[in-house]
Automatic annotation (TrEMBL), chain A:
GO terms for cellular component: AP-3 adaptor complex; cytoplasmic vesicle membrane; Golgi apparatus. Keywords: Cytoplasmic vesicle, Golgi apparatus, Membrane, Protein transport, Transport. PROSITE patterns: CLAT_ADAPTOR_S. Its main location: membrane. It comes from Propithecus coquereli (Coquerel's sifaka). Belongs to the adaptor complexes small subunit family. The keyword Electron transport does not apply. It is a peripheral membrane protein. The keyword Transport applies. Adaptor protein complex 3 (AP-3) is a heterotetramer composed of two large adaptins (delta-type subunit AP3D1 and beta-type subunit AP3B1 or AP3B2), a medium adaptin (mu-type subunit AP3M1 or AP3M2) and a small adaptin (sigma-type subunit APS1 or AP3S2). Interacts with AGAP1. AP-3 associates with the BLOC-1 complex. Residues 1-147 form the AP complex mu/sigma subunit domain. This is AP complex subunit sigma.
From TrEMBL, chain B:
It comes from Propithecus coquereli (Coquerel's sifaka). SUPFAM superfamilies: ARM repeat (SSF48371). Component of the adaptor protein complex 4 (AP-4). Adaptor protein complexes are vesicle coat components involved both in vesicle formation and cargo selection. They control the vesicular transport of proteins in different trafficking pathways. AP-4 forms a non clathrin-associated coat on vesicles departing the trans-Golgi network (TGN) and may be involved in the targeting of proteins from the trans-Golgi network (TGN) to the endosomal-lysosomal system. Keywords: Golgi apparatus, Membrane, Protein transport, Transport. Belongs to the adaptor complexes large subunit family. It is a peripheral membrane protein. InterPro entries: Adaptor_Complx_Large_Subunit, AP4_complex_esu, ARM-like, ARM-type_fold, Clathrin/coatomer_adapt-like_N. GO terms for cellular component: AP-4 adaptor complex; endomembrane system. Residues 52-167, 171-535 form the Clathrin/coatomer adaptor adaptin-like N-terminal domain. Adaptor protein complex 4 (AP-4) is a heterotetramer composed of two large adaptins, a medium adaptin and a small adaptin. One of its GO terms (biological process) is intracellular protein transport. Residues 655-664 have a biased composition (Basic and acidic residues). This is AP-4 complex subunit epsilon. Gene3D superfamilies: Leucine-rich Repeat Variant (1.25.10.10).
Length: 163, 952
């Protein structure tokens, strides 16, 4: 299963962290720090799988990451996940983000972290991969956006009434 | 945390609803459920944290009363659980209810069970000790025919049971589903799914990966099931065209599965080709996976490693440390006698470069593992290399390494191998190398390494020729004065000094050390220093307490503390109060407080001598001490009683399953054909190497050399050892039982000395000497025993007849007997000459067979002018022997002796408990002993015997 999903910048600033196992706030911060420490030192032309990371649990954990321009996408998984499978899942995730935000950039993730979480929920739930079909995910997200917009209209309408 | 809250809250309405219908007793029920409602309402209405605390404490105390009341029904209990969950959720301790939650999960009907399980899963965590109580319930529910119960059990297992307690991957029950999985996979691979499922034109790749994993579990070690999946695996391999990452992922899983299930040669060939593609791929991710696959496969098919040896060598120098590490992992699996030096060297090189703690811990463990394993199988090329490599491991691994490593290393040194001289050389080398290391100035060694050094120096410095113990002590002293050394290490150091002190001739340094540390602020150090000081004052005792090269001997501890019986008896005879157990004291204290004492003040019972009018209670209590101390020893671990529980679960997990697994692993697959092929390949490759050498550049040549040194010995004879090394990380040293039973007696007496040396009785020193002497005697084997066999008699009447004869004979022969038996070894002080005679006679009356077993000291039970009765206990393998010796001191004829055994409060004579009473007469000694299969025969017998004597 997937233990954790992290997104952080080249400077180690976390923009998204999602843990599928309970950790205390402090431990979460330490994990992020340790992960950044592990990942940031690595060159561009080395492999994308790492073992280790003492904090997140037992040694059979693997760390699979991808580096896009200014962002690191890191997945912590246990031995029951396929490395290459997860590796491509990151690609799917990023492509989905790109579709939903239309040319996604770091700022999108910073200012719309809720949406990023929503997209992630469509793909991974409880540490299990739920959906890998990009079109399906995008459709769901669009529906949500529409719902949100209509919800947003109603209170607005109410306020208008009161005035 | 939020999902737990969610779970709880979703459970609540269900509970309310459940209680709505119902006839008569509905009122009682609804009062309970409404109490939860009112609790929740009450808490939400509160304004301060303080008020909440008060309310909850109130609630908890009422809950505590309810759950422990016997009248509480399961239904009420269910309500209580929900309220407890609520309290616990708010952060208050509700641990008193945990056991009731477990009970509810055991006993309740479906809904109550469900609440019980929910409460358990919220209350307990995976290392909670109460979890063991749940195991049986869960096992029972897993076998239930009710699907809901099975689901509940599975849920709780997945939530709280530690991983090792879950029988992993027990696929045997699902073999019938294999067909369905294969059909699904066939459809997926065949492109029967809608295009929506495609990812980069690969049909549902993640699903394929999952299916292949499932098939791997199903087909493991099962030929029939495996045969079903050969076709679909073949097709998967064929269909997966190498164009995208995700197809590589499928291929990787496919290869993994092919090597896991029952083998089929065609598929294996294809899979091997696939691995080749991975390993040779320029993409680093694929190379990494290729190495991983090789590591896995190499246990079954070492030839593959030979095919790719040059690639592996290249990977060793890869810029990416991850690839390097994976390569080392691969090499670790193929270590054997011939290539161990090269592989360990490569590992050490990597170790010196890396800084990550995880890597160091992992790699140090592996190196130590390889070294130790191979040394046990006498792989290690030589002692020097072994010790030096271990030194490197300790220096680098330092304090982050697993504590087992130094422990195992020391055990290896101590227990040694089959060859004693070889062992001594290894130890000597270790001592020498450590002394050299300690000579280097301004070098800081990790604490663990220093601890290892101090132990080895303490134990084996006696092997040195040149350096004297004083020099070693000086070095240790220098370390002790170093501020950078932790107090734990200092304790090791001072222990080493203590071991060396008896061997040293001059003791200036030791005295200085004692002076220095008896005023230390560290209490632990101070205690050690004082111990050393006291021992140092009695060198003889010290030598016996700390024998040279005895670290492997088992020390037998006399748990009943029977060696103190004499001390206790003496204390009692001097008017000391008999020991009362703590609870008795407290009871008495309570009763004294409540009731007025109408008894007149009694006279003090200070009658001289043990034979005085002592209350039986006093003596039996006195001898009870031993029994009590044994009991407290047992009670010390205040944990769950697990005797009698079927051993279904162990630390390693589900036991029966585990056993069968290891059995499978040790099975040797059919090798002979392969091995010959391998040899051929090996030869072919080396030939090729030789022919190519001329044309290759120097660098290439080096690599070839490395390859040949790394992959040497991957031939037939090493296959088995390779396979054996499947999961070797936790391998332990081979334990050799070197315990000699004859020596255990000695150790007991040594133990006795230590205890008696600290007691304060005036004659202790003398006693100590006596024990030392007997000990020495036994060691030197000069202490010949009387041959007593002829005097073993069966019936009392016969014995009586013989007694007269014997007594007359022995009065003449006794002096010569003493001469024969080297009695002059005893050198008692002149002042105690009178009692010496007694001691000698007591010593000589120890039965011959007794010295082979653990036995207690000879204790005089009682005496008068003519006879004295002494007793001791012998713990044999199968029984407890109690021996009484009656000594005639007067020289008059002993007409008759009666032994009566009375059944009494603490002791009942039972058939089977006493096998028989034996006795014999020798000179003026009558010895009685009987066997009992019960090893904890109470000391009450002693008292009875004493009473008989008094009567006679």
């Amino acid at each position: 299963m997937i233990k954790a999903i992290l997104i952080f910048s080249n400077q180690g600033k976390p923009w998204l962290s999602k843990f599928y196992q309970p950790y205390s706030e402090d431990t979460q911060q330490q994990i992020i720090g340790e992960t950044f420490h592990l990942v940031s030192k690595r060159d561009e032309n080395v492999c994308n799988f790492l073992e280790g990371g003492l904090l997140i649990g037992r040694s059979d954990n693997k760390l699979i990451y991808r580096h896009y321009a200014t962002l690191y996408f890191v997945f912590y998984v246990d031995s029951s996940e396929s490395e290459l499978g997860i590796f491509d899942l990151i690609q799917v995730f990023v492509e989905t983000l790109d579709k939903c935000f239309e040319n996604v950039c770091e700022l999108d993730l910073i200012f719309h972290v809720d949406k990023v979480h929503n997209i992630l929920v469509e793909m991974v739930m409880g540490g299990m991969v739920l959906e890998t079909n990009m079109n399906e995910i995008v459709t769901q997200i669009d529906t949500q956006n529409k719902l949100e917009k209509s919800e947003y209209l109603i209170p607005h309408f109410d306020n208008h009434d009161r005035e | 945390m939020s999902d737990i809250v969610e779970k709880t809250l979703t459970a609540l309405p269900g509970l309310f609803l459940q209680n709505q219908p119902g006839g008569g007793p509905a009122a009682a029920k609804s009062s309970f459920s409404s109490r939860l409602g009112s609790l929740v309402r009450g808490i939400t209405a509160l304004t301060s944290k303080h008020e909440e605390e008060k309310l909850i404490q109130q609630e908890l105390s009422s809950l505590k009363a309810t759950v422990s009341a016997p009248t509480t029904t399961l239904k009420m209990m269910k309500e209580c659980m929900v309220r407890l969950i609520y309290c616990e959720m708010l952060g208050y301790d509700a641990s008193f209810g945990y056991i009731h939650a477990i009970k509810l999960a055991q006993q309740g009907n479906l809904l109550e069970k469900r609440v019980g399980y929910l409460a358990v899963s919220l209350f307990l965590h995976e290392s909670h000790e109460l979890l063991l109580l749940l195991v049986n319930t869960v096992v029972k529910d897993l076998q239930s025919t009710n699907l809901v119960e099975v689901c509940m059990a599975l849920t709780v297992v997945s939530q709280i049971f530690p991983r090792e307690m879950i029988p992993a991957e027990n696929s045997s029950g699902y073999k019938d589903l294999t067909g369905s999985f294969i059909t699904i996979l066939k459809q997926v691979v065949g492109g029967k799914l809608p295009v929506d499922f495609n990812y980069h034109s690969v049909p549902a790749p993640w699903l394929q990966i999952q299916l292949l994993r499932i098939l791997r579990l199903l087909g493991k070690d099962d030929q029939r099931t495996s045969e079903l999946m050969y076709d679909v695996l073949d097709e998967s391999l064929r269909r997966a065209e190498l164009n995208h990452n995700v197809t590589y992922a499928i291929l990787f899983e496919c290869v993994h599965t092919i090597y896991s299930i029952y083998p089929k040669s065609e598929l294996l060939e294809k899979a091997a080709k696939c691995i080749g593609k991975f390993v040779l791929s320029p993409k680093i991710n694929l190379k990494y996976l290729g190495l991983k696959a090789l590591t896995y496969v190499i246990q079954q098919d070492p030839t593959l490693a030979l095919q790719h040896q040059m690639t592996i060598i290249e990977c060793l120098d890869h810029p990416d440390p991850i690839i390097k590490r994976e390569t080392l992992e691969l090499l670790y699996r193929i270590t054997n006698a011939q290539n161990i030096t090269v592989i360990v060297q490569k590992m050490l090189e990597y170790l010196h470069q890396s800084k990550e703690e995880y890597v160091i811990v992992n790699l140090v463990g592996k190196i130590a593992d390889v070294l130790v394993l191979n040394t046990v199988d006498t792989y290690a090329p030589d002692n020097a290399w072994f010790i030096q490599t271990m030194n490197a491991v300790f220096s680098v691994g330092g304090d982050v390494m697993h504590p087992d490593i130094p422990n195992n290393f020391l055990r290896l040194l101590a227990e040694g191998f089959d060859d004693e001289t070889e062992d001594q050389q290894l130890r000597l080398y270790a001592v020498q190398s450590y002394l050299t290391l300690l000579d280097v100035e301004n070098v800081f060694y990790p604490q663990r390494f220093l601890q290892v050094m101090s132990w080895v120096l303490g134990e084996y410095s006696y092997l040195l020729d040149k350096e004297t113990p004083e020099e070693v002590i000086t070095k240790l002293y220098k370390l002790l004065m170093n501020d950078s050394i932790s107090s734990e290490t200092k304790t090791w150091l001072i222990a080493a000094v203590t071991k060396l002190t008896p061997q040293a001739r001059s003791s200036n340094i030791v005295e200085r050390l004692i002076q220095e540390f008896t005023i230390s602020l560290d209490t632990c150090m101070r205690q050690h220093a004082f111990e050393l000081k006291h021992l140092h004052e009695n060198v003889e005792l010290m030598k016996n307490l700390l024998p040279v090269d005895k670290s492997c001997e088992d020390i037998v501890v006399d748990a009943s503390l029977s060696f103190l019986d004499g001390f206790v008896a003496e204390g009692l005879s001097q008017g000391a109060a008999p020991y009362k157990p703590h609870h008795q004291r407290q009871e008495e204290k309570l009763s004294q407080e409540k009731v007025l004492n109408f008894e007149p003040y009694g006279l003090s019972f200070s009658s001289p001598g043990f034979t005085g009018r002592q209350s039986p209670a006093g003596i039996s209590l006195g001898s009870d001490i031993s029994g009590n101390s044994a009991e407290t020893g047992l009670k010390e671990t205040n944990s769950l009683k697990l005797e009698g529980v079927k051993k279904l679960w162990g630390k390693e997990g589900y036991l029966p399953k585990k056993e069968s697994k290891t059995g499978d692993e040790s099975e040797t697959p059919p090798i002979p054909q392969e091995s010959t092929i391998m040899e051929n390949v090996d030869q072919a490759i080396t030939k090729k190497d030789q022919s190519q050498v001329l044309t290759q550049s120097k660098e290439e040549k080096e690599k070839q050399l490395l390859a040949s040194s790394l992959f040497v010995g991957l031939g037939s004879d090493n296959t088995i050892s390779l396979l054996g090394k499947a999961d070797t990380v936790s391998h332990k040293f081979r334990k050799k039982s070197k315990v000699k039973e004859t020596k255990s007696g000695e150790m007991t007496s040594i133990h006795n000395i230590t205890c008696s040396s600290f007691s304060s009785l005036s004659n202790v020193a003398y006693e100590g000497d006596y024990y030392l002497n007997t000990l020495q005697d036994r060691r030197d084997k000069e202490f010949k025993k009387f041959s007593l066999n002829s005097e073993l008699l069966d019936s009392e009447s016969l014995a009586e007849l013989h007694l007269v004869e014997k007594l007359s004979n022995c009065s003449l022969s006794t002096p010569s007997l003493f001469d024969d038996n080297n009695m002059e070894i005893f050198h008692p002080p002149q002042s105690t000459a009178a009692s010496v005679a007694k001691e000698i006679s007591l010593a000589s009356s120890l039965l011959e067979e007794t010295t082979e077993y653990i036995h207690s000291n000879l204790i005089e039970v009682c005496n008068n002018e003519t006879v004295s009765v002494s007793s001791y206990k012998i713990w044999k393998d199968d029984c407890l022997l109690m021996v009484w010796s009656v000594t005639n001191k007067s020289g008059l004829e002993l007409k008759s002796a009666n032994l009566e055994i009375f059944p009494a409060e603490n002791f009942k004579v039972r058939q089977g408990c006493l096998d028989g009473i034996h006795h014999f007469f020798h000179s003026d000694v009558l010895a009685l002993w009987f066997r009992s299969s019960c090893s904890t025969l109470p000391d009450y017998l002693l008292y009875q015997c004493q009473k008989v004597m008094e009567g006679s």
